[in-house]
């Protein structure tokens, strides 16, 4: 979800104004994805590299995230959306971790859509922590080195138990993955657009889904039908 700061700068507004509008875009896209029958939506909210931003901006982003969490979790629950979080939670303060845990527990039984929020997350961190987990099991004598395969490693990743993404959307004009879900995106279709995140709307989402639907996947894994129209039945 790239482009909040540039959106604000183009309007001679402070950066927090761009992040405020970015939160509105999140709500808009979550609602539209649920309406379209998307089964799992993962949002890259705060990367492991974002800690390198100025301290004031990081503090503002954490406050904005907490405010959005407090304001939206009840609505997500009413809409039967399950909320999950992935990332290095130990990097977050205890109060935020508690609120995240409470939101996840409240919505745990919901089935309409799974909304995964990646916060303090990095793809390299994800693979590294999975490798460390397997190493600890080997040292403890619980796992033989020869038994480690792709399935074994995947079981230790943050998104274990969820399907790999069919489609990655990146806004804001950048054409790179930026350390997001490095393992999980192995066979994912990539869609890049120049639209800044606060301006990403239903029409932009439709364009991304149409792009995905029009692609001919000849090699590798053929994704399952995770995206369907609102008038279609599973």
Describe the protein.
The protein is an alpha/beta fold and 234 residues long. The protein is built from seven helices and five strands, in the order H-H-E-H-E-H-E-H-H-E-E-H. A three-stranded parallel β-sheet has the order 1-3-2, sandwiched between helices. The radius of gyration is 18 Å and the shape is globular. The chain starts with a helix and ends in a 20-residue tail after the last helix.
Summarize the structure.
With 234 residues, this protein is α/β, with parallel strands linked by helices.
Query: What is the average of the pLDDT values?
Result: 91
Shape: globular
Briefly note the structural class of the backbone. alpha/beta
Instruction: Extract low-pLDDT stretches.
Output: 222-234
Rg, rounded, reads: 18 Å
If strands are numbered along the chain, what order do they take across the biggest sheet? 1-3-2
Number of helices: 7
Amount of helix: 40-55%
Number of strands: 5
List SSEs in N-to-C order.
HHEHEHEHHEEH
Indicate the proportion of strand residues.
Answer: 5-15%
How far the N terminus sits from the C terminus, by CA atoms, comes to 28 Å
Report on the biggest sheet. Answer: 3 strands, parallel
Would you spell out the secondary-structure blueprint of this structure?
Elements: H1 4-10, H2 15-36, E1 40-47, H3 55-78, E2 81-86, H4 94-107, E3 113-121, H5 123-139, H6 150-154, E4 167-170, E5 189-192, H7 202-214
Overview features:
two-stranded parallel sheet; 234 residues; 44% helix; disordered C terminus; globular; 7 helices; 13% strand; alpha/beta; 3-stranded parallel beta sheet
